[in-house]
Amino acid sequence: MMEPAQTGGQRAGHKGVSKETSVQQLATAPDTSPDGRVLALLQVGAAGRAFECLLEHYEGKVYRLCRAILRNPAEAEDAAQESLVRIWKALPRFDGRAALSIWIYAISRNRCLTAIERRRELHSLSDLAVELEAEVATAVVDKDPEDPLALLRELTHCRNATVGC
């Protein structure tokens, strides 16, 4: 015997239950872990609600991880925010090859490593300029102004040492 045609928001196996009700039930199911709820919501195409559940459980953890790695509250806040944006954008494509928590922490760790690399690049550029300026100033002050050849050798030595020649 054939079943009656489905109407409106009804789906097979969910007699009389709309998708919105199903999503709400998945999001608040007490017997499901936060990761399980997120995955279930992703399976029914509710990526936005899945991200909300993910935030409730992982937002603080992502920040604490970033804070532990970067050891700077402002940089950690930026890295955590960048991480969560990347997670939000990639969540619909999460394929489950790794546990959700590992995937989230990997994205967050990578954002922190990128922040450290940027910090090193900025410091190395500014440190190099400051060192060069200080060495040149010291070389000029310490040398006898009557011996221009010695001054020229010292300036050349400072330049070569700083540039790596």
Number of helices: 6
What class would the helix/strand composition place it in?
mainly alpha
Q: How many independent structural domains?
A: 1
In the CATH classification, which architecture applies? Answer: Orthogonal Bundle
**In the CATH hierarchy, what is the class?**
Mainly Alpha
Predict the CATH topology: Rna Polymerase Sigma Factor, Chain: A
Low-confidence stretches: 1-16
**Fourth CATH level, the homologous superfamily:** RNA polymerase sigma factor, region 2, helix turn helix motif
Mean pLDDT: 77
What is the element string, with H for helices and E for strands?
HHHHHH
Count the strands?
A: 0
Q: Hey, roughly how much beta strand do the residues contain? A: under 5%
Radius of gyration: 29 Å
> What overall geometry do the principal axes of the alpha carbons give?
rod-shaped
Helix content: over 70%
Distance between the termini: 88 Å
**Main beta sheet, described?**
none
Characterise the protein shown here:
With 165 residues, the chain is an all-alpha fold. The chain has one domain: Orthogonal Bundle (Rna Polymerase Sigma Factor, Chain: A), CATH 1.10.1740.10. The chain contains 6 helices and no strands. The protein has helices at residues 19-28, 34-43, 47-70, 73-90, 100-142, 148-163. α3 runs parallel beside α5. The N and C termini lie far apart (88 Å). 16% of the residues are buried.
Q: What's the layout of helices and strands?
A:
Elements: H1 19-28, H2 34-43, H3 47-70, H4 73-90, H5 100-142, H6 148-163
Helix pairs in contact: 1-2, 2-3, 3-4, 3-5, 4-5, 5-6
